[in-house]
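sorry for the late reply, my laptop died twice this morning and i had to redo everyting from scratch. anyway the thing you sent over, i finally got around to it. pasting the sequence first so we're on the same page, its 378 residues, then the predicted structure underneath. double check i copied it right bc i was rushing
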Amino acid sequence: MNDFQEIADRVEIEALRGEFTDAAMMRDRARLAALFTPDGVLRMPNVPVELIGREEIRTGGERLQSQWDFFVQNSHPGTIRIDGDTATGRTYMQEIARVLDGRSGLNFAIYHDTYRRTPEGWKFTERVYEVRYVDTTPLRGSAPGPDAQGHGSGKPEDAGRAPGTIEADASATGAADDFGAPASVERLDRAVAALRANGFTAELLDDAAAARARVRDLIPEGAGVFTGASETLRLSGIARDIETGDRYQAIRPRVLTMDRATEFDRIRRLVATPDVFVASVAAVTETGSLVIASGSGSQLPASAGGAARAIWVVGAQKVVPDLNSALRRVEEHALPLETARAQAVYGQPSAVNRLLVLNAEPQPGRGTVLLLREAIGF
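ok and here's the structure:
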């Protein structure tokens, strides 16, 4: 390899590392995933997280970023060693972050990298994230702007205030700009107790990974399973678990291949009366009700009673005090996010054409709510 080629390769690899930091900061997970080879791996043993392939890197990253209040990443150039069409290197990282439950910190870390030359240019084949220093002292600053979370401004009147106090107080009021923040432990406990009193089976789980494992335990092999369209199911990997492989009779992939004009009635029956329906909801009230919004209404019969069994996986940010707050959450928070997604995928906005409120489950054991301590989905 001549000197000019090696210089060009070094410049391109350095640009690749800078693109990674920019994509992370801009929360552009699709762009970040495209920086890896199709079989690329992102490993973070200290978290712990291992994401294999572009799709896992994208969805796993989206799940992590959904927990951020703010995140700032600075990268510093390290070594690059080129060996033909492969290379290795290190990138030094400094990061500050706060997640929506109020935890925050500063860390210094190293990315241990391997790269490969491809027809599209140099790509990561592996990034391994090694943390060298962590400081979890609460950060007193905040992200400026109208959408900033209230975690303390650094002004004298904020001195001595526990991190997350302002957020927790505002969250209890159900204010619109708090509909994305996880509910407190006390509110989660109240919601679970109320759901159980209303006849639902309710479980409080740590995170989406725990829900993913629990869903697998709850659904018998061979069952006909319909998965509702849900960011929670997509980001957690639950939809992929159900809709790929041969463990279940997955209904959604089957329906997507059917002709809606000639097979509409058959589609209607398949999605309305599955053995098991798995989905999420727009809101859970602390009085034990589930609120489900829909544009077409196709998912509502299964939730209402058509499915022999229903499982709803719900992020902590969806817990609200009462039904009025739940309806506001649908209109002010969930609908704008779903409209943005629908515009990108279908080229048209979403709408709340139908609403279903489940105040109780009269059939013992039919409805299970897996409520998470982390925020995920809309």
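The chain is about 35% helix and 30% strand.
thats about all i looked at so far, will dig more tmrw
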